[in-house]
Amino acid sequence: MVQHEFKVNTQWSGGREAVGQLNGDVLDEQISIPSGLGGNGTGTNPDELLVSAASSCYIISLAAVLERSGFNNIDIQQSSIGTAVFENAKFRMDNIIHYPVIEVETTQKDSLVRKLPKLLKVADNNCMISNSIKGNVTVKIEPKIK
């Protein structure tokens, strides 16, 4: 088994209205409870970070799958939306929908149309974050070809 470690440090002083700090190898960001949930709204928050992790993992996986399938000049613009719900007195992320807009060489568009459903599944299966949240969060992909 291959194992990788990803280390982050967090710091928080105070209650719900406070602002904390998140530091990783690259990340250096303030964190707080979102203002829509009664918090400070400064910096980022765990919900945004979860959707960001899922989105960035999926777009990287999709680009790699497209490249391995022989597509050239790949350009993907993606938005992702995570929907959280409050049920049974708990907040949880219910679903994340990725909306990739994929562009490849004009001569390869027909091939992409034919292969895309399978490639989307392969990318999802290769995404560590998708694999980590399966069974708890529904992940949907709604692509467009440009």
TrEMBL record:
Transmembrane spans: none
Gene3D superfamilies in alphabetical order: 3.30.300.20
Highest taxon listed in the record's lineage: Bacteria
InterPro entries tied to this protein: KH_dom-like_a/b, OsmC-like_firmicutes, OsmC/Ohr_fam, OsmC/Ohrsf, OsmC_Ohr_Peroxiredoxin
Pfam families associated with the record: OsmC (PF02566)
Name of the protein in question: SACOL1771 family peroxiredoxin
Provenance organism: Staphylococcus equorum
